[in-house]
């Protein structure tokens, strides 16, 4: 039996993906995101889409490995060289192709959510900086909330002083 989607995971995931798709076509190629709160780094549309396209299958796989008991340690940090290389490699790919990869990643996450039951969601793994997390917490943080963060990042109506997306 499949566990119910906690906090509307599926709905939130689909809404964030839809916002990314809608925003990506509005942004010029050279527009930069607002600075990352931690690093101050700013991304262009290609970098943000490249990251979203690679992070969805990455984190889905990490959650699946922990749920299956095949991996106790999971994840990466922003400075991970493979993460950085994937963003740099794919940032100039056609935005339509990147959005297709985002759609594929969302499908991977949705399929994972269908497969996981309560026991799977309760499995615990260890992240190097965040400590112990259940698979449910991993999904909520690294897939759902992370995708929502990137939807906010790409939304041309949002930004400093406009967190609710009031048109400006």
List the helices and strands and how they pair.
Layout (H helix, E strand, L loop, with lengths): L8 H16 L20 H23 L5 E2 L6 H10 L4 H21 L2 H5 L1 E4 L3 E4 H20 L14
Parallel strand pairs: 1-2
Antiparallel strand pairs: 2-3
Q: Could you please describe the fold and organization of this structure?
A:
- The protein is mostly helical and 168 residues long.
- A hairpin with a 3-residue loop joins strand 2 and strand 3.
- 57% of the residues lie in helices and 6% in strands.
- It has helices at 9-24, 45-67, 81-90, 95-115, 118-122, 135-154; strands at 73-74, 124-127, 131-134.
- It has one domain: Four Helix Bundle (Hemerythrin (Met), subunit A), CATH 1.20.120.
- It is globular.
Element order: H for helix, E for strand: HHEHHHEEH
Annotation, overall tally of beta strands: 3
Q: CATH superfamily, called what?
A: dinb family like domain
Shape: globular
Terminal-residue CA separation: 46 Å
Which regions are unreliable across 5 or more consecutive residues at pLDDT < 50?
1-5, 159-168
Which structural class best describes the helix and strand composition?
A: mainly alpha
Described by strand count, sense and barrel closure, the largest sheet is: 3 strands, mixed
The count of domains is 1
- Distinct helical segment count: 6
Summarize the structure.
The protein is mainly alpha-helical.
């Amino acid at each position: 039996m499949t566990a119910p989607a906690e906090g509307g995971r599926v709905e939130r995931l689909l809404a964030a993906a839809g916002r990314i798709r809608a925003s990506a076509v509005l942004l010029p190629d050279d527009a930069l995101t607002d600075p990352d709160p931690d690093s101050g780094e700013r991304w262009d549309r290609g970098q943000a889409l490249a990251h979203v396209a690679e992070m969805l299958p990455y984190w889905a796989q990490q959650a699946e490995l922990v749920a299956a008991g095949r991996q106790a340690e999971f994840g990466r940090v922003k400075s991970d060289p493979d993460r950085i290389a994937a963003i740099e490699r794919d940032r100039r790919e056609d935005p339509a192709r990147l959005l297709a990869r985002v759609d594929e990643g969302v499908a991977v996450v949705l399929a994972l959510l269908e497969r996981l039951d309560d026991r799977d969601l309760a499995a615990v793994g260890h992240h190097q900086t965040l400590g112990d997390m259940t698979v449910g917490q991993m999904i909520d943080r690294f897939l759902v909330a992370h995708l929502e963060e990137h939807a906010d990042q790409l939304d041309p109506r949002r930004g400093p002083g406009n967190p609710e997306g009031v048109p400006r």
